[in-house]
Specification:
Strand order of the largest sheet: 2-1-3-4
Order of helices and strands: EHEHEEHHHHHHH
CATH architecture of the largest domain: Up-down Bundle
Structural class: alpha+beta
Oligomer: single chain
CATH topology of the largest domain: Glutathione S-transferase Yfyf (Class Pi), Chain A, domain 2
Low-confidence stretches: none
Largest sheet: 4 strands, mixed
Strand content: 5-15%
Number of strands: 4
Mean pLDDT: 97
Helix content: 55-70%
Amino acid sequence: MKTTVYQFEHSPYCIPVTQALFALGVPFAVKNISNADRKEVIELTAGAYYQVPVLVHEDQVVFESAPDSTDVARYVDRVFAGGRLFPAGHDGLQRILIPYIEDQVEGVTFQLVDPRYLRAMTDVVERTMIRRHKERKFGAGCVEAWERDRERLTAVADALLEPFDLMLQHRTFLLGDAPVFADFALFGILGNLTYRGFNQLPSGQKSLAAWQQRLQNFRFA
C-alpha cells in the first residue's frame, strides 16, 4: 500500500500527520511542495484544494474540508490507528484542546517563525509568494512588525504553552499513558516553532521538553 504526504516540511499541520504515521509504523513517502508552485496539489484534488497536507493512500486523496476540520488525521486514525488517535473517551477534551493548540497557540508561534524562515529562504519567487500571502491576510509590513515585537510574542507563546507543561508534570502524554491526536497537534506546533533552530522551547518548561523528546521516539505497539 503506497502512502504519500504532500507537505511543507515546516508546517505545523503537516508535522502531526507524518509523526503519527511514523509512530504507527506506516511506511510512507513525503513530497515537499513549493509555495511558488502548488500545481501538483491542485491537480491531485481536481482543483478543490491548494493547501497541505494532502494524503494520498492508494486511490484515496484526502484533504481538509474546512479550515478547522481534522479530515486527514481522522482518516489516518480510521485506516491505520484503530481509533487510538481519537478515542471516544477523550472526544470532549480533544474538541477543546485541538482548537486551542491549532488556533490560539499557533496564532502566536507562527509569528516567531515566519520572519526567520523568510530571511533564510534563497528562492526569491517562493519568498515573495509567502510574503504576499502573509501581507494580504495581516497587512503590509506584518513580517517586520513581528520581528520588532519578538520579545512580547515570545512571552505570549510561553504563557500559552505553560498549561501543557503543567499537565505533563503529571502525565506521560497530554491525556494519559499513550498519545492521542492532541499530542501530535502540539508536537506539530513545537516542530514549526523550533524549525532549523529558529526558536527554542521555553527554558523553564522542562516537562514539555521531555514530552517532545518522548513523542519523537514513541512507537505504538
